[in-house]
Write a structure and sequence with these properties.
This protein has one domain (1-121). The chain contains one helix and no strands. It has one helix at 2-122. It starts with a helix and ends in an 8-residue tail after the last helix.
Length: 130
């Protein structure tokens, strides 16, 4: 039992030493941690800068592409307007041609009727119409 009493008296000293050691380690780590964190921040800041630069380049490229596409759209709009105008003019010409053709067909029918009347009155056989 004498031996267990001896360890009992050393326990508080051992616990105190362990606590002091643990406190010292915590203090040391708390002093070193900002330097480690700062080194990690520097790396992450550099990586962040690279990512930012890359994103800015992509943004510039996208904006240039957007401007090019906007110009293409404007060109296509102008071309579409020109083609629509030409189509309207062509349809007007077709309508005018159809009206002229219709008038010509009517005149031809009238002339054919007159020829038939003349043939009938002269005793000849009337023309056959197609």
């Amino acid at each position: 039992m004498a031996q267990s009493d001896r360890f009992a008296s050393q326990r508080p000293r051992f616990c105190r030493s362990a606590l002091l050691l643990a406190a010292g380690l915590c203090l040391a780590l708390s002093c070193i941690a900002p330097f480690v964190a700062r080194a990690e921040d520097d790396i992450s800041r550099e990586e962040a800068r690279q990512k930012l630069d890359s994103s800015e380049q992509q943004l510039k490229s996208s904006r240039a592409q957007e401007q090019g596409l906007a110009q293409d759209v404007a060109t296509l709009d102008a071309e579409r307007a020109r083609l629509n105008s030409e189509l309207i003019e062509a349809s007007k010409r077709v309508q005018a041609s159809e009206a002229k053709l219709s008038a010509t067909e009517t005149k031809l029918a009238d002339l054919t009727d007159q020829v038939d009347v003349i043939r009938t009155s002269s005793g000849r056989k009337p023309s056959s119409r197609c």
